[in-house]
Amino acid sequence: MALSDDERRARNRAYTQRYRARNVDKARELSRRSYAKNKQKRRDDARRVRRDQPERQRAADAKYRRRHPDRIKEIRQRYNEKHRDKILKRSRQLYAENAEACREQARAWYAKNRDRILAGIRRKKYGLSDDEIQRLLIHQGGLCAACLRPFDRKLAVDHDHKTGTVRGLLCLACNMAIGHACDSADTLRMMAEYLERTGQEQAVA
User: Which letter, b or e, does each residue of 125-160 get, where b requires 16 or more Cβ atoms within 10 Å of its Cβ?
Assistant: First the structure.
């Protein structure tokens, strides 16, 4: 009984798999030779597809990136490391030629990704995830841990500069005040006493 084309292809695949399993080294050597022999042809075919069918090639590239994100990341890292000087030179040249456009693009990108950037900084600097920030915020009742006022702008993560321990979430004003006082409770108490003293003197005058 004659075999159909699908059955013949399946039989050939099964035979090839059995042969490769029995002759691993030889199969690898044949694969290397075939790859080297047809390398230029594959390159020419790829260039022709990119030139004549750009939409098809873009769809195939996007599909590959979705299926292999880790591989794409590794390839980009290797390329950046290998051509670091060339990339920096090209970037500086582009920036010099289009300085204002680059600055505007950077501002627009930051405005669009501000929350993601700040979340990344908190995660890297303080080890706090978005969920942990939200738990701290709920624990504080949505208020600054120092002045007990609602956050009018972005919040700041207050931490001990010696140990790195996170103490709480503060408004920018309180965080700057503590920072300028060098995290010294005595300095802050003296500042409070100064305000009370000068306030009383003005009242008497």
Answer: ebebeeeebeebbeebeeebbbeeeebeeebbbbbe
- Residue written as tokens 């680059």? 102
**1/185 Cα distance (integer angstroms):** 95
How far, in Å, CA of 118 to CA of 126, rounded?
Answer: 11
Closest CA to 152 of 166, 174, 172, 126: 172
* Average pLDDT score over the chain: 88
pLDDT digits (tens, 9 = 90+) for 23-66: 889 888 888 888 888 888 888 888 888 889 889 889 988 999 99
How many Å apart are CA 131 and CA 28, to the nearest integer? 50
Any domain includes 133: yes
State the Cα–Cα distance between residues 106 and 112, nearest whole angstrom.
Answer: 10
Angle at 99 between CA 94 and CA 102, to 5 degrees: 80
Three-state secondary-structure class, residue 105: helix
- Domains held by the chain: number: 2
Give whole-number Cα distances, 81 to 70, 136, 161, 166, in Å: 17, 40, 34, 35
Q: Tell me: do 102 and 133 sit in the same domain.
A: no
Could you say which DSSP state residue 158 is in? E
Q: Are 192 and 151 contained in the same domain?
A: yes
